[in-house]
Specification:
- This is proton-translocating NAD(P)(+) transhydrogenase.
- Helix 1 packs antiparallel against helix 2.
- The chain is elongated, with a radius of gyration of 23 Å.
- It is built from five helices and no strands.
- The protein has two domains: about 70 residues; about 70 residues.
Length: about 140
C-alpha cells in the first residue's frame, strides 16, 4: 500500500472513532436509536442514511412482534390484549402532544388522525378483551 493511502485510512479511522465517541456522549442526552444511528453514520463515513437505519429497526421490530404474538399460547391472549391497549394509550398521549404542540397544520392533521385511530384501536381492544373474558365465565343455567 502507498503511504498516502495508509494516511487516508488512518484519518478516516480517527474520524470514525471521534464520531463514535460523540455518539456515546450523546447516548445519555438523546435516545439510544439516535446514538446508534449517529455511530453507524460516522463509522461508515456517511454511507448509511439515518432514515434507512431507523427504517431497518422498524422492519425488524415488525418481524419480532409478529413472531412474539403468534408464539403466545391461547390462554395468554387476553393479557396480551390488555398490554396492547396500554401501549395504545401511550400512543394517544403522543398524539395529543402532536395535536397540541405542533407548529404546522400538517402535524396537527397527522396528530388528529393518530388520535382517532388509536382511540378506535383501544375501544375495539377493550371489546375484544371483554368477549374473550366472557368465554371463560361459567354460564348460568
Amino acid at each position: 500500500m502507498e503511504p498516502n493511502a495508509i494516511d487516508q485510512a488512518l484519518d478516516q479511522l480517527e474520524r470514525a472513532t471521534a464520531s463514535v465517541r460523540a455518539a456515546f456522549e450523546n447516548m445519555q442526552a438523546e435516545g439510544l436509536a439516535d446514538a446508534a444511528g449517529a455511530a453507524a453514520h460516522g463509522a461508515t463515513a456517511g454511507a448509511i442514511d439515518p432514515f434507512i437505519f431507523r427504517f431497518a429497526i422498524f422492519v425488524l421490530a415488525i418481524f419480532v412482534g409478529y413472531y412474539v404474538v403468534w408464539s403466545v399460547t391461547p390462554a395468554l391472549h387476553t393479557p396480551l390484549m390488555s398490554v396492547t391497549n396500554a401501549i395504545s394509550s401511550v400512543i394517544v398521549v403522543g398524539a395529543l402532544l402532536a395535536v397540541g404542540i405542533s407548529a404546522s397544520g400538517l402535524a396537527t392533521g397527522f396528530g388528529f388522525v393518530a388520535l382517532v385511530l388509536a382511540s378506535v384501536n383501544i375501544f375495539g381492544g377493550f371489546l375484544v378483551t371483554q368477549r374473550m373474558l366472557a368465554m371463560y365465565k361459567k354460564k348460568e343455567k
